[in-house]
Each structure stands twice: as structure tokens, then as C-alpha cells.
Amino acid sequence: MMHIGSLVAGPRGTIADVAGVTVGHCTLAQGAVQTGVTVIRPHDGDVYRDKVPAAACVINGFGKSVGLVQIDELGVIETPIALTNTFGVGTLANAQIRAAIAANPRIGREDPSVNPLVFECNDGYLNDMQALAIHEAHYTSALEACSVEFERGAVGAGRGMSCFELKGGMGSASRVVHIGGDAYTTGALVLANFGKLQQLIVEGEALGRKLQSSIDEKPEQGSIIMLIATDAPLDARQLRRLAMRAAAGLARTGSVFGHGSGDISLAFTTAYTVPHDADFIAMPPLINDARLDPLFQAAADATEQAILDALYSAETVAGRNGHRRISLKDALRTRP
After folding, report:
1. Which of 131, 141, 214, 221 has the fewest CB atoms below 10 angstroms from its CB?
2. Catalytic residue positions?
3. Which domains, and CATH codes, for the chain?
């Protein structure tokens, strides 16, 4: 797969190039059930005790996520991030709450409640969402599987997802920039489930038009969740600006953020944490806003690369009612 942009990638070329970040999957793939769970840990500690600065940007709000209101208000996340299908959101929120209470029995009593954080895309074309196949144990399995080495494509939450009417799913990428003599890594992880084939652009080439001979007038229906991690010292306001730049990478692939699309990005930094019990927060010197452009480019390039990674990593999958999504690699092999 081609390399997007002029910035270099980290050694793994994934979001795990940001120190401390790990990803785990639990995949359900049997007949009409083609779905799963993906969990992202920003560090290996208790995120409730050591919260992570974060901010979200809703590009188009056709989505059913949990936890965004408190992130907007307080600028931190306090659980691992969970991804799944639309009907699995409530189940995973319960799983996150149970896990947080098990580690912190004072939650909801002497201590404040916990803010679960779950994002979703609708995988109903391939997956029978009415089966409600996602259980709390699947969250636990994905959490326990978190590692710096993880699969991409039709795995975890990405198992049943479609992208540009091809097989979509999980994708990841990273970029390294230098600001003031220091190197910073920015990584992207996407759950890609959006777009019409005729819109697909790969490195500036209108590839979708070459793969589809006729024009389809049906509206685009789908979503994408874009997670941006960085080790650059930023505050929540700056992280929201970073999260917004994921939309630039999304647009380059051909997305128009359609009416029925839930396009949401979230950015977090591992440069410092916010201790739950502290009276004051020890923060490193923050990067001046006027020096953020390299990070903005890194977020856009890594997001575009991650979407292409999801397409190139996915395999062809058949699911509910005989529905089938062909992988981009298979589509290119059969191209006239």
C-alpha cells in the first residue's frame, strides 16, 4: 500500500507507536453474526484514577455514542475506549461501568460516577444486529487482548463494517513530526464504515469510478469513528483542534460526510494524566498554538492512511441473508 504524505511513519505504522497505547479485539464471525468489539487503552494503568486529556469533534452527528457530553465539559476520558456495532453500545457501557467499579468500589458512592466511552457504527448490512450478539464478556476479552501488536481489517468492531461499498473495518497509521527540536508521534485508528464506491479516491486517483461503471443514486449511509493519539503536550482545547483535522484525511478519501453518516473523531494525549484525587494538575509546557501545524498534518495524513489501511487489510466477508462485501484487493484483482 502507498504511503500518504511526506511525513515518516513510526516503527509499527499504527496508533501503538504512541507510547502506552494498546489495542485489542474480540471478533464474532459465524453465519449471520459478523461483528465484534475493539478496545483502545491509552495507558496500562487505571484510567479512572489517572484520566487522559481528550476532546471530540462531531463532524456529522448521525450516531449513538456514549460519553461525549462529559468529554466536552471536562476534557478527559476515564475509561478505555470501546468500539462496536450500534446495538452493542449499551452493553459495552455497562461492561465499562462494571470494570471501573470492580477496580474502584467507591464509584457511585463516596466517589463520583464513571463516564463510559463507547463509539459505534452500523454493521447491519453484513451483521444481524437484531441478534444482539454483543455481550459484556466480549468487552472483557477485547480489553485483555490489548497489545501493541494487533490485527486490522475485518476484525473486532470492524468485522461487519463496509467502506465505499467494499469490505471496511479497522485501520491504523502513524506519523512522526519535529517541533522545537523534539519528536512527537501521532497515531490514528479508524472504524471505517462509510462511503459510496463511486466516491472512493486513493492518493488522488478516482479509483471508485474505475471500479463502478454505473452511477448509483442511492444516498450514502454509513459512519466512521476516528481516534487520534499523540504524545505531544496539548490541552483539551488544542486536542479538539487536532481531532477536527481528522476530517481533512477523511475528505481526501472521497467522503462528503453524508446525511446518514455518523462521523466522529476523538483526540487524546499521553503526555500527562489528570490524577483523580489531586488538588492540582502537573502539566508539562504546552506547545504553542502557532506551532501546531505539523501535528495537524500528521492527524490528516494518518487518518487518510488508516482508512486505506482498513480497506487494504480487509478480507471478503459474507454475512446476513447472503449479503457479501468484497475486499478492495479482490476488487482490484477482478477489475477489467
Report:
1. 214
2. 223, 261, 263
3. 15-275+287-330 (3.60.70.12)
